[in-house]
Amino acid sequence: MSRIPTLNDLKQGQKARVKKIMSKGTIRRRLQDMGFIEGSLVECLQRSPLGDPTAYLVKGCVIALRSEDSSSILVTEVL
Amino acid sequence: MSLACRTCDTRVGEELFGIKIDYEKEYVVALAGNPNVGKSTLFNNLTGMKQHTGNWPGKTVTNARGVCRYKDKEFVMVDLPGTYSLMAHSQEEEVARDFLCFARPDAVIVVCDATCLERNLNLVLQTMEISRNVVVCVNMMDEARRKRIRVNIEKLSEILKVPVVGITARKKNTLKNLLETLSAIVDAEEKKQYFRIEYPENVEKALEVLEEVLTRKIDYVNSRWLGLKLLEHDESLVESLMTFLPFNIFEDMEVMSGLENACRVLEENNMSKDDLRDITVSSIVRQEEEKSKNVVVYEDERYAARERKIDRIITGKHLGYPLMLVLLVVVFWITIKGANYPSEMLARFFLYIEGKITYVFELAKAPDWLHGILVTGVYRVLAWVVSVMLPPMAIFFPLFTILEDLGYLPRVVFNLDKYFKKACSCGKQALTMCMGFGCNAVGVTGCRIIDSPRERLIAIITNSFVPCNGRFPTLIAVISMFFTAYLTNFYGSLVLSLILTLVIVMGVVMTFFISGLLSKTILKGVPSSFTLELPPYRRPQVMKVIVRSVFDRTLFVLGRAVVVAAPAGAVLWLMANIHVGGETLLGISASFLDPFGKVLGLDGVIVLAFILGFPANEIVVPIIIMAYMSQGSLIELDSLSELKALLTANGWTLTTAISMMLFTLFHWPCSTTCLTIRKETKSMKWTLLSFLIPTLVGIVVCAIFANTVRLFGLVI
Fold it and tell me: B235 and chain A: CB distance < 8 Å anywhere?
């Protein structure tokens, strides 16, 4: 049985497309404003020295997310 | 300008936005844009003002206003806080949206970053939905060129059907085109249509009726947009509508029945308010994707490769933390080294002038008390503040500004966030702490970038654990007197920087500890979500930063010295010379505080100095010196070694010095900061707590330290 991968599962350098955002409320809007919407391509750039947060490249900008938030973004299989 | 309907409404701009506008003479132009796209730089260059700029999102937190003249026109520029969207998830977005919507500016400039235009288009489209006179201004054209990103300005203008101008905000000569466009757009007789975003059929059907009613009721807000927001039940907008509209829209029968009908249509289609919001957002994003596809060409796919490489070092697993510390040490080292020489020169200069002034007083046969109060009191405190405090400030500040312009600070947040998460607070607190290095009051205001009210309060309360510019020189002076006096020059200043860094690290650790404690007790809660943008690195304008911050800082410190230090000097001299029952007021207060001071490893005079230094931390050390000197030991102070002699003669030991440093780091915030906290929290309770918590920490830390030393008989 395989779980649907989330953004948090990406390793440095991996890319994936956003499938669905599970979070609710303000953070959901915020993520959408930043360009995390269904179908957008996201690349995992690197983790911070302590492993969290992680920097992602989305729509030409670098956005850092905490693991709680990145694991609420479902992605299609890793490209 | 459609004056008729607006002049009666000038109150909107003045009362509700705190901005005075003469609608008859001036054109109001709002500057909107994503955070960190150079709005403030553009604003400064257009208006000749000096808003603080920096390479991190969230720099501008309030509306700033400035005037710009071009040909025969006068534009009032309003610099709105940077936002990613106008859907009001935060205070800044609310401010920006309300201004665009209800203050009805004559034109709106939406500033975009050419290097990530697609994301920026989101705000452009949203703005065009609520405003009809939009000029899109694509900034950072030079940077885009360097990264070989080609933006087709004409094409963008054609697609959006609004004027688009490419500029480089740093270079004034690129702005003429923008002003010309602006001038034309405010002159235009015919208003453009609002930008229309097409939604799925069922949404359109629901909107239809509502839109028609609203068009009849309110003529200056896009009824299509307003209808959609009412359907989504956007709470923050509901509140603003109550404030800004001349009538209560929610008591209007027609509007309400229209809204009901529309809601029914949505229900029939099984669409919740959340679904609707998702649809609105994604419809806009689809539009922006499509539009940018035809406009931006990346000639070099790896345009940011170098930046990524730098990031992997600066925020890397192995080097991230060591580099932060090394940077701190280097900054301190430059500050200390650089301040040494001007400090000495200034001290000698002031001493020389003091001699001359005294000579004049003697010639004029002025009474002793006048000489005392003006020269021994006011003049000496002033001289100390200027000669010892000013040079380190004037050097530290620009160094820090350069790091800020470079884009390093968001990386600090990125590195440290995990600890903040552990303390159940927001990573952006690190940014507010960095601002606290300059001035705690600024740091407290900066806490607005933190969205969660709980986390914002934590950041406000703990901000004074970062020593501000007014406390640095005190730390430097104490360290160099008691720790590094015997080391040779180079190693001396290096060791000094290391110790200073250690002190800062202590402050940071205490911040984590108290933040965590607050999250477990009076400000209980879980860490909220947050997104942090890491902006591209930008080359700082070194010369400009140096010239400006040296100049600004100098003026600021001098101003404060005159306003605060001078009267304090006078008060102190009076206290030292008014006798009550055979003792001076100063002596009485000092001996009253002495037992308490002793518990902390300090003495009565030091505690008194901290209390009298409430208006400004800069004057703590001069007060100590004056108090000791007035008690008998008169020395001519022109070097730190003589100062040390004075202190040792008054019972200072290494323990006193360390306690002094601890208390400098942990005690109540200065009066300006307290007032700012009051303004920001709008609550006496939190202001009081922000005063008490650092004070208690200071008392506890000092008492533990001093008594441990005493207990083990380690009198050093």
Answer: no
Among B159, B187, B215, the domain boundary falls at B187
The pTM (predicted TM-score) of the whole model is: 0.86
Q: Do A64 and B531 touch (CB under 8 A)?
A: yes
Q: What angle do CA B477, B483, B489 make, to 5 degrees?
A: 80
Q: Are residues B429 and B502 in the same domain?
A: yes
CB contact under 8 A, B118 and A55: no
Nearest-by-Cβ selection for A49 from B321, B527, B531 = B321
Q: Distance (Å, rounded) from C-alpha B102 to C-alpha B241?
A: 9
Residues B563, B617 share a domain: yes
A48 vs B: CB within 8 A: yes
Residues in chain B within 8 Å Cβ distance of A64: 413-414, 417, 531-534
Cβ contacts (< 8 Å) between A52 and chain B: which residues?
417-418, 421
Amino acid making up residue A14: Q
> Domain boundary residue among B136, B160, B187?
B187
On whether both B98 and B132 belong to a single domain, the answer is yes
B255 lies in the same domain as B378: no
- The number of domains in chain B is 3
Whether residue A30 and residue B418 make contact (CB cut-off 8 A), yes or no, is no
The answer to whether residue B229 sits within a structural domain is: yes
Put simply, the answer to whether A37 touches B282 (Cβ < 8 Å) is: yes
CATH, residue B251: 1.10.287
Q: Do A6 and A73 contact (CB within 8 A), yes or no? A: yes
Residue A33 sits at the chain B interface (C-beta within 8 Å): yes
Assess if residue B716 is contained within a domain.
no
pLDDT of B145-163, one tens digit each?
Answer: 988 899 999 999 998 889 9
| Residues of A whose CB is below 8 A from B317 | 47, 49
Domains of chain A and any CATH numbers: 7-75 (2.30.30.90)
Question: Is the Cβ pair A66, B421 closer than 8 Å?
Answer: yes
Question: Which residue stretches of B147-222 are H helix?
Answer: 153-160, 176-187, 201-217
d(CA B157, CA B32): 18
pLDDT (average), residues B184-208: 82
Shortest CA gap A76–chain B (Å): 18
A40 neighbors A75 (Cβ within 8 angstroms): no
Q: Are residues B96 and B240 in the same domain?
A: no
Q: Are B378 and B434 within one domain?
A: yes
CB-CB neighbors (< 8 A) of A45 in chain B = 308, 311
Closest residue to B529, CB basis, from A23, A33, A60: A23
CATH of the domain at B98: 3.40.50.300
Q: Is B193 a domain residue?
A: no
Question: β-strand B164-166 against B134-139: which pairing, if any?
Answer: parallel
Rounded mean pLDDT of B596-611? Answer: 93
Closest CA relative to residue B34, chosen from B80, B103, B75? B80
pLDDT of residue B88: 67
Does residue B304 form part of some domain?
A: no
> Average pLDDT of B180-203?
83
Task: State residue B10's pLDDT score.
Answer: 42
Name the residue range of residue B610's domain: 320-711
B531-581 pLDDT per residue, tens: 898 988 888 888 877 887 777 767 877 787 778 888 888 888 888 888 888
- The secondary structure of B24-90 as a DSSP string is TT-EEEEEEESTTSSHHHHHHHHH-------SSTT---S-EEEEEEETTEEEEEEEPPP-S-SS-SS
Q: Are residues B289 and B325 in the same domain?
A: no
Asked if A43 has any chain B CB less than 8 Å from its own CB, the reply is no
8 Å CB contact of A33 and B277: no
ipTM of model over 0.90: yes
pLDDT in tens, B638-655: 667 788 888 888 889 999
Interface of B with A in 76-105 (CB under 8 A): 84-85, 87, 89
Mean pLDDT rounded to a whole number for chain B? 85
Amino acid at B128: M
Mutate to test the interface with B, among A8, A37, A58, A62 (most CBs of B within 10 A): A62
A interface mutation test: which of B36, B116, B285, B317 has the most A CBs within 10 A? B285
The reply to whether B523 and B662 lie within a common domain is yes
Q: Is the distance from CB of B660 to CB of B606 less than 8 angstroms?
A: yes
